[in-house]
């Protein structure tokens, strides 16, 4: 029996070889969020699905949804993002970004925010107006926020005031005003002094519309502090070793 075909638009996040000629793809799609799809026979070089069943390809797919397995019937390539595979650094960073996208998305959920984040991140990698290490920290911070783990950076965690936010506690997950900063107490909660530039960077990355997300730069000093915060915040909340992170 021929099942109804479903069109999907999305990016191939990862590819896993199955048997001799097949692949299992994890696709981040507009319509179904993260979805696993089997592509039969596609590892033969002359197979029509050979080109579309590679990591980091943006396609329109036609799939058949089964009770337990989805099958890929056809695919039309929309973009291959060639600059992501141009040099070693780009390969490492784009692999890391797609690994994070796979980790922080859930099958069957609406994940268009993270799909769009991936698009603007790849665009930023093409433009290279800011460095790859800064793109990485912005991406990490924003994907955590979409996942539901965000820092409160707009008002004091204790009293809600929006002025004099000069202290951040990574452990408590946000900023404190000068009246309340003594309440952080415990030094294991990583209290850090915030400069206005650093606070602005944290607020900008938390709230900027995605098409403006990478349209700013930081001095080396502010970048180092920003990177430190994102790294520690992520380590605190994400108990997972990412394979591709080791290459960065
Ligand atoms: Zn306060």
Question: What is the structure about, briefly put?
Answer:
The chain is α+β, with helices and mostly antiparallel strands and 248 residues long.
Write the layout of secondary structure elements.
Elements: E1 5-18, E2 22-29, E3 33-39, E4 58-65, E5 70-79, H1 88-103, H2 112-127, H3 132-147, E6 165-169, E7 174-177, E8 191-193, H4 196-207, H5 220-237
Antiparallel strand pairs: 1-2, 1-4, 2-3, 4-5, 6-7, 6-8
Task: Note the overall shape.
Answer: elongated
Report the CATH architecture of the largest domain.
Up-down Bundle
> Can you give the helix content as a percent range?
25-40%
Report the portion of residues in β strands: 15-25%
Question: Whole-number radius of gyration?
Answer: 21 Å
Total helix count? 5
**Which stretches are low in confidence, meaning pLDDT under 50 for 5 or more residues running?**
none
Q: Got a strand count? A: 8
Named CATH topology of the largest domain: de novo design (two linked rop proteins)
């Amino acid at each position: 029996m021929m099942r109804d075909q479903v069109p999907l638009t999305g990016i191939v996040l990862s590819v896993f070889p199955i048997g001799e000629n097949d692949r299992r793809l994890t696709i981040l799609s507009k319509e179904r969020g993260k979805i696993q799809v089997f592509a039969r026979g596609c590892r033969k070089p002359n197979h029509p699905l050979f080109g579309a069943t590679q990591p980091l390809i943006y396609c329109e797919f036609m799939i058949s949804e089964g009770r337990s397995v989805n099958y890929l019937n056809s695919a039309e390539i929309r973009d291959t993002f060639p600059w992501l595979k141009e040099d070693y650094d780009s390969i490492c960073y784009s692999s890391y970004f797609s690994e994070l996208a796979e980790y922080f998305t859930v099958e069957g959920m609406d994940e268009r925010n993270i799909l769009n984040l991936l698009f603007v991140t790849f665009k930023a990698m093409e433009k290279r107006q800011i460095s790859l290490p800064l793109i990485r920290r912005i991406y990490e911070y924003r994907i955590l926020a979409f996942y539901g783990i965000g820092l409160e950076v707009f008002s004091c965690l204790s009293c809600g005031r929006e002025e004099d936010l000069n202290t951040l506690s990574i452990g408590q997950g946000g900023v404190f005003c000068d009246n309340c900063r003594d309440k952080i107490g415990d030094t294991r909660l990583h209290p850090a002094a915030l400069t206005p530039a650093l606070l602005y960077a944290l607020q900008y990355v938390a709230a900027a519309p995605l098409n403006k997300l990478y349209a700013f730069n930081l001095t080396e000093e502010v970048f180092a502090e920003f990177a430190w915060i994102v790294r520690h915040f992520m380590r605190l909340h994400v108990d997972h070793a990412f394979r591709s992170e080791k290459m960065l």
